Amino acid sequence: MMKDDLFATPQDEVPDFVFDERVVDVFPDMIKRSVPGYESMLAMMGVVARQYAEPQGRVYDLGSSLGASTLAIHRQTRDLDLKHICIDNSAAMIKRSQAILSRHMPQADLELVCDDIQSQEITDASVAVMSFTLQFIEADDRLATIKKVYEGLKPGGALILSEKIAFDDSRQQSLQTDWHHAFKGANGYSELEISQKRTSIENVMVPDTLSQHQSRLTAAGFDESYCWYQAFNFASIVALKH
């Protein structure tokens, strides 16, 4: 696992964040050191997904990056013979995830698609996962994206939506941001790295509040939604279709 030092050198102009080869090379280290409780959340995600995955059913990983969510679910559902469809618009991510996932999963159980998730149809899914994906979609397009997921789920299916979240209360927003930065500092990121990464990502990743997410899920048609995990300003919601 290569160390994430992409922002360790001062930059005169920090470019917007993109999921290119440089990011792919360090992505496992980046997300482990940047997302509080990431590994615990993945393990629990597999447990949650098993409750809704139908035998021989279809599971969609929307914005699949290196396939960590897919692999976490597969580890808890090997006996169900699921079909996993991973969609990501980064060719570098898809190429690398193919190499990673093929070492752990039967090729017949896996389909990888390099495309925008907004362009892909979702059909006959028992589970869909969006792990830190919706926050990179334009705000005006988010409801339509969630509606597409809802319509592609079978009755009894579930969406597991994980996101960095914002807070309505300015004091809580400030505290949560400070705690998150302290977490990153404790994992070896310098103040320069934290600052430059924030500049790089602030124009391409716009978080919503939990209430915004849940209101959108209701508007899309979901019957229930619950926040089942939160660590600082990162949370995961399970939304159910009856």
Automatic annotation (TrEMBL):
Keyword Transferase assigned to the entry: answer is yes
Q: Which terms in the Gene Ontology molecular function aspect does this entry carry?
A: carboxyl- or carbamoyltransferase activity; S-adenosyl-L-methionine binding
Q: Which residues form the Methyltransferase domain?
A: 59-157
Enumerate the UniProt keywords alphabetically: S-adenosyl-L-methionine, Transferase
Q: How does it assemble?
A: Homodimer.
- What name does this protein carry? Carboxy-S-adenosyl-L-methionine synthase
The entry's function note states: Catalyzes the conversion of S-adenosyl-L-methionine (SAM) to carboxy-S-adenosyl-L-methionine (Cx-SAM).
Q: What is the lineage of its organism?
A: Bacteria, Pseudomonadati, Pseudomonadota, Gammaproteobacteria, Thiotrichales
EC identifiers of the protein: 2.1.3.-
Q: Name one GO biological process term.
A: tRNA wobble uridine modification
Enzymatic class: transferase
Give the residues annotated as coiled coil.
none
Family label: Belongs to the class I-like SAM-binding methyltransferase superfamily. Cx-SAM synthase family.
Which reactions appear under catalytic activity for this entry?
prephenate + S-adenosyl-L-methionine = carboxy-S-adenosyl-L-methionine + 3-phenylpyruvate + H2O
Superkingdom: Bacteria
Binding residues annotated for S-adenosyl-L-methionine, in chain numbering: Y38, G63, S64, S65, D88, N89, D116, I117, R198
